[in-house]
Every structure is written in C-alpha cells, then in structure tokens.
C-alpha cells in the first residue's frame, strides 16, 4: 500500500486499470497544484449546458433527520410530502447568454398556498424545457445546498443508486433558496444527531468557532460553477460539503470558495466571470432540506429528509427497473473518491470490518485523513505499476 501522502493522491480516472470506466475525462490540472488541500480526484472542466438543457445527471445525495433542527438544518424522517410552500425550485442551469435563471426578477404571482401547488408550479417550469419529450426518463433529483449535512449524509445511498440503478436512472441536484442560520448551538446539536443516523464523518466545530450567517455565498459559488457544466458543479458541491462538514471550515468567504474550486479542478477565470451573473434565490420561509423527487413511469414522489434505501428499491422494483452489481472497488474509488468507509459499506453491502479489509489489501488504494474522517482514494503511482 502507498504511504498516503498528498503528492500521491492525484488520480486520473481514465488511468484506472480496474476494468471499469469513469464518467469524467482527465482535467487539465497540475498534479503539483496547491490549494486548500490536495486530495481531490481530478476531473475536467466541462462546457456549460445549453439554454434548453437542465443539469445533467450526476451524483446525488438525499438526506434527512429527525426534523427538530432550526432553519437550515437537515430534513425530517422521510415522510412523503410536497416541497414547502413558497419555495421555488426551478432549473439551476445557466442560459445561453451566461445568465442564471436565479437572476431573474421575482415573480409577481402569489406564492403557492399548499405543497401540492408548489410542486405543480415547479413542474410546470421544468416542463417548459421538456415539451418535446413524450415520456420522462427515470430520475432522482435532490433539492439541497452545500451546508445541508443530511444531504452530505445521504451520499452513500445516492452512490448506491448510481452504482446499482445508474444504467436506467439518472441522478441530479437542484439548489434550494438561501438559508439563514440563527442558532449555531442548535445547528451543532442537530449535526451531531444527524451523524448518529447517517454515520458519515461530521465536524461540528464550525458552529462553535466561526459559524456562518447564511448559505448565500456558497449558493452563489455553486450557481457560478454550473457554467462549467453539471458534473463540474457536482464535483464542487462535494468538495464544499467536505470542507464544511468534515474539516469544520466556514466556506462563506469568496477567497475560500475559489481555493476550493481550484482544488476541485474548476476553471477559476470562468468562475469569476460567472460570479456576478448569477443571483441565488431568496425566500422568507424556513427551509429544512433536503427534498428528494423521484420521477418514475410518469409518476412523481417527493420525500423530505433522510431516505431509506429499501423504500427507494420498492419504487424502482414496481417500475421493473433491475438492479446491477456495482463496478469493481478500484473503479468506484477512482470515480467517486476520496470516499468514506461508510460509502463503501453501503454501496457493496459489506460490514465495516469487511469494507476496511477490502480497502486495506489493495495496493492501488490508499487511506487519507481529511478533517475528522478517514477517506480512501486511488494511489496515483498504482497506474505506473508502483
């Protein structure tokens, strides 16, 4: 096994010798770059989506908790509900002129009075771009943001959906409006409660040492990243979540956001160009993301908070969507890494001791300590026969 030093942790997914292919091409990133850290797998910047295309499928992660948090906490226990009234959750893709949909003026119509009306309004907006589609492909969409710790905690389940159902089911993210944080102490307690459920690494120190006031700058950064394509934006979203929830960093700072973007392989010049062109949605309502919408067989189901994989499987099974085995471990770590042990356990349905044994016995996979957690990534030199 490699020594796990950061200089060895840059892996080009296309160099994977495990026999499985990654969905991303190799980026134009200097392996010796420095940033906030140097462990993120490299991936290329992508062309911005066209005007009539929404965000393309990427990794997602639903989330949820006991529903007792303050505004800005994770969701409740997974009940089937509508998205909260007054919350606009339209398409996050930039349009052809480089403007983001969120920069448009507020609608003059009244807010929907019920969750069902909210869903109908949001779907009507989405259908404007899909008028020519007779039947919508199966899709899982998570409505969340970079500070959603339950969204972070649902990465294992979303990656399992991607690995086992990705041949038929797309996954995607949409951004919820800006959230404000009024009680850091309660947020720290909520993150700790959520951790007991999802078991992903969590560092609550940001709420004690340097708490954010809102999600505004992180939301703006994500929308700006969408101008480099949905895959780049999702890669960036994961990096932002790792910084906040595993490393205890307050990312509501433009300089930090740009350092993290560079670390995630984004084009900083393009990010700067898009920064002032986007405008995050605002709302006066208290939000409790994530919300996850399932589009299957022309039907839609929206779930709030944490998701149980068995419930998701029931939805797919009823639609005749068959599960496949996940790709070999090396390919999974190369494509999605650095990955937490919990993600490997969930995707491969292994107990912790088996997951750790499988990871440790591979010379092409190395552990790396990130914040309060141990993660796993492909060893760069493994591709060179070392």
Automatic annotation (TrEMBL):
The protein, known as: DsbA family protein
Coiled-coil regions, chain positions: none
Extent of Acidic residues compositional bias: 1-18, 88-104, 113-136
Signal peptide: none
One Pfam family it belongs to: Thioredoxin_5
Region (Disordered): 1-144
Gene3D superfamilies xref list: Glutaredoxin (3.40.30.10)
InterPro entries: Thioredoxin-like_sf
Biased composition (Low complexity): 51-65
Biased composition (Gly residues): 66-81
């Amino acid at each position: 096994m490699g020594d796990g030093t950061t200089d060895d942790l840059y892996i080009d997914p296309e160099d994977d010798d495990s026999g499985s292919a990654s969905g991303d091409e190799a980026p134009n990133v200097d392996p010796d770059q420095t940033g906030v850290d140097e462990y993120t797998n490299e991936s290329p910047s992508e062309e911005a989506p066209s005007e009539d295309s929404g965000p393309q499928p990427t990794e997602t992660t639903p989330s949820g908790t006991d529903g007792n948090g303050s505004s800005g906490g994770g969701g409740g226990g997974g009940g089937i509900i509508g998205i909260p009234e007054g919350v606009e959750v339209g398409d996050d893709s930039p349009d052809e002129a480089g403007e983001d949909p969120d920069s448009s003026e507020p609608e003059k119509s009244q807010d929907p009075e019920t969750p069902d009306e909210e869903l109908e309004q949001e779907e009507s907006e989405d259908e404007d771009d899909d008028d020519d589609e007779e039947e919508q492909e199966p899709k899982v969409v998570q409505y969340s943001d970079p500070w959603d710790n339950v969204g972070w905690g649902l990465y294992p389940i979303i990656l399992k959906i991607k690995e086992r159902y990705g041949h038929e089911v797309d996954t995607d993210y949409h951004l919820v409006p800006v959230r404000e944080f009024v009680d850091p102490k309660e947020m720290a307690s909520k993150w700790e409660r959520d951790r007991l459920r999802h078991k992903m690494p969590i560092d609550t120190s940001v709420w004690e040492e340097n708490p954010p006031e809102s999600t505004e700058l992180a939301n703006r950064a994500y929308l700006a990243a969408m101008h480099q394509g949905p895959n780049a934006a999702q890669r960036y979203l994961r990096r932002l979540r790792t910084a906040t929830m595993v490393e205890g960093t307050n990312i509501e700072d433009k300089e930090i956001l740009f350092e993290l973007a560079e670390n995630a392989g984004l084009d900083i010049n393009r990010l700067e160009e898009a920064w002032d062109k986007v405008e995050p949605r605002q709302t006066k309502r208290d939000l409790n993301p994530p919300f996850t919408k399932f589009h299957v067989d022309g039907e839609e189901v929206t779930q709030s908070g944490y998701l149980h994989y068995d419930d998701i499987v029931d939805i797919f099974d009823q639609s005749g969507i068959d599960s496949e085995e996940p790709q070999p471990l090396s390919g999974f770590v190369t494509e999605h890494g650095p990955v937490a042990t919990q993600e490997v356990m969930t995707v491969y349905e292994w107990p912790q001791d088996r997951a750790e044994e499988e990871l440790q016995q591979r010379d092409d996979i190395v552990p790396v300590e990130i914040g309060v957690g141990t993660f796993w990534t492909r060893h760069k030199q493994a591709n060179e026969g070392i």
